[in-house]
Design a protein that fits this description.
This protein is α/β, with parallel strands linked by helices. The protein has two domains: 4-40 and 63-69 and 113-232 and 479-504, Rossmann fold; 251-463, Rossmann fold, CATH 3.40.50. 29% of the residues lie in helices and 28% in strands. It has 15 helices and 26 strands. The strands form six sheets. It has a six-stranded parallel sheet with strand order 2-9-1-10-11-12, sandwiched between helices. A six-stranded mixed sheet has the order 15-13-16-18-26-25. Strands 19, 20, 21, 22, 23 and 24 form a six-stranded mixed sheet that branches. Helix 1 (17-30) crosses helix 14 and helix 6 packs parallel to helix 7 (207-217).
Length: 506
């Protein structure tokens, strides 16, 4: 039997589509249905490598986890990774399709329809329910032609649509009404209800407005979802996680550099679950302070972000902290920055032949190449930086996504020994020198034992002397968050009516 689709669209970006979709995935899963997420086109710098070595957006990874299944690239057949204000790397079916300016991508978008259809239809043949997520807003009338992610996708899947509005930003009634009014007449039949999200206060105060909204749109309000305190990976750098915070006295202070093209910042979300840690993102020298750990995260534009750091003074501030003994961690692009030189002979990130001096804290040289490395890895930590020697011996698992090769000076201690998940030749990854360490592995802190050892070592180095490491099980923590989310949606949404919409279709 072919799956029944239901689609979540929003009145704007960050209305809460991804969260509502994840919650519905968990509700349907709890109710015994085989459910899979789908988003035809995602734009995000937070990506993930699947078990088969393919790249996909993080939001659909979260939704797949909520649905109790393995993430697969067909759940997100098109991923756009912005490299500039007007251009993106285009990932199709998990592999690089090319780098395009926005106008070129828009022109070639019809070529992608068969890829979208094949991916969706393959999922629909295997599952009972497909929860489809839109992007931005279906009311972007300038983009309605050749749309493949909002109402265009709803038409391809014959999916009923639930429209989500963000009341926390204000103007939710106008945005819901305006969106419903602006969709094309043929698309109107797909709209089956509205959801008000991120509400703080007494729902009874909303009742008169809800009734009027139903009257003028002809659509039922399916529920008012409160501002939920659930900790689930965010889709992109619009995340509130990146808002500037001050360090909390008496806690381990972790400062993460907020690069303009920061990617995969969800790598560090496990640190935020630790009660003794204070995690903050910094973008100026005055914000750095004297942290216990400085992280140079991944970035989609390593050379540009390195120059940005150099020009705004952060490089000097970081080097000063490194000289004073502060522990530095570089992940992927951040690891490349820690080396001596970065060269781009083929113009992977910009002008061919570009060469930039690194921070010089690790004896490594990076050369960018057109072929992207996409591999899930598992292994063991070989050495930790000064003060964090206890990391040695910890199991580690993660994934590589990069377009550069780093060559280290012979004799440089590697960070870990890893091999492809599922089998393959083991090799060394990363480097450790004094209080500086780097690795290509994203997601390494999802390994509970490594996270626990890191927290304990940092706490002891700070003089906090914890009696024991906290419970560090990121997988169990995620499950708890998905259960909390599902329970909140069951309480705030009319699930009986949503099930009827699912059954009736369009």
């Amino acid at each position: 039997m072919k799956a029944r689709p239901i689609m979540i669209q929003g009145t704007m970006s960050s209305a809460g589509k991804s969260l509502i979709a994840a919650g519905l995935c968990r509700v349907f899963h709890q109710d015994g249905l085989r459910v899979a997420p789908f988003k035809s086109q995602n734009m995000a710098l937070n990506s993930f490598i699947t078990w088969e070595g393919l790249e996909m957006g993080r939001a659909q990874v979260v939704q797949a986890q909520a649905a109790g299944i393995q993430p697969e690239a067909r759940m997100n057949p098109i991923l756009l990774k912005p490299q500039s204000d007007t251009g993106s790397q285009v990932i199709v079916n998990g592999e690089v399709w090319g780098t395009m300016a926005a106008a070129e991508y828009y022109r070639r978008k019809p070529e992608l329809v068969p890829h979208v259809l094949r991916a969706y239809q393959s999922l629909a043949a295997e599952y009972d329910v497909i929860v489809i997520e839109g992007a931005g807003s279906p009311a972007e009338i300038n983009l309605a032609e050749n749309d493949i992610v909002n109402m265009g996708m709803a038409r391809m899947a014959a999916a009923p649509v639930l429209l989500v509005g963000d009341i926390d930003r204000g103007g939710v009634f106008a945005s819901l009404y305006g969106t419903a009014a602006l969709v094309e007449p043929w698309a109107r039949k797909h709209l089956k209800g509205t959801i008000i999200n991120k509400f703080r206060g007494d729902v009874e105060i909303l009742r008169p407005g809800l009734r009027q909204l139903e009257d003028i749109t002809g659509l039922p309000v399916l529920g008012v979802v409160p501002w939920l305190r659930v900790d689930i990976d965010d889709e992109d750098s619009l995340s509130a996680r990146l808002a500037g915070r001050a360090g909390v006295p008496g806690r381990v202070d972790v400062a993460i550099l907020q690069f303009p093209r920061i990617s995969n910042f969800t790598d560090f979300a496990p640190l935020e679950t630790l009660p003794g840690a204070s995690v903050r993102y910094v973008s100026a020298p005055g914000e750095l302070g004297q942290p216990d750990l400085i992280v140079l995260p991944g970035t989609k534009s390593t050379l540009a972000d390195l120059l940005w750091m150099r020009q705004n003074g952060l490089e000097s501030a970081v080097l000063k902290q490194a000289a004073a003994g502060t522990v530095l961690l570089g992940v992927c692009g951040g690891y490349q920055m820690l080396g001596r030189t970065l060269r781009d002979p083929e113009g992977v990130e910009g002008e061919p032949g570009a060469s930039v001096r690194g921070l010089g804290l690790l004896p490594g040289d990076t050369v960018f190449a057109g072929e992207k490395v996409r591999t899930r890895m598992t292994g063991t930590v070989l050495a930790g930086p000064r003060g964090l020697e206890a990391l040695a011996g910890a199991p580690v698992e993660g994934y590589e996504i990069h377009m550069g090769r780093t060559t280290l000076e012979p004799g440089t201690p590697p960070f870990c020994l890893v091999a492809p998940l599922g089998g393959g030749e083991a090799r060394e990854d990363g480097a450790v020198l004094g209080n500086v360490w780097g690795t290509y592995l994203h997601g390494l802190l999802d390994s509970g034992e490594l996270l626990a050892r890191l927290w304990r070592a940092l706490a002891e180095k700070k003089g906090l002397s914890p009696e024991e490491a906290p419970a560090c099980d990121p997988a169990a923590y995620r499950e708890e968050q998905y259960r909390t989310l599902a329970a909140a949606l069951r309480q705030s949404l009319d699930m009986d009516r949503i099930y009827r919409i699912l059954e009736e279709g369009i």
